[in-house]
Amino acid sequence: MHVGRSLFFLGLGATVGVLVVRKVQKTADSLSPSGVAGALRSGLADLTDAVRDFGDEVQVAMLERETDLRAALGLDDDGAAT
Question: pLDDT tens for residues 46-66?
Fold first, then answer.
């Protein structure tokens, strides 16, 4: 029984060791200059997309509001009163 138990703990230790080394390597890669640059590039791309979407939404809202105001004031598309 002692040999089986020793083999079990040897395997468990090896598995934990491999998992720890992989986690440390992944963390080190994310903190490297190329990892930080990649994260920054991804974050800036997301920010650019969000700003573009916001601009599109503002433009749509402005056109809707302008249409509402023109209708309320009785103006047609060229600004003449109807």
Answer: 999 999 999 999 999 999 999
Dmax over CA atoms of the chain, in Å, equals 99
DSSP annotation of 78: T
Judged by DSSP in three states, 67 sits in helix
Backbone angles phi, psi at 81, to 5 degrees: -70, 140
Q: Say how far apart CA 49 and CA 14 lie, in whole Å.
A: 45
Say which amino acid occupies 39.
A
Contact 39, 30 (CB under 8 A): yes
Tokens of 21: 């080394």
Distance of alpha carbon 42 from the chain centroid: 7
* Residue 41 identity (one-letter amino acid): R
Residues 44 and 51 sit within 8 Å (Cβ to Cβ): no
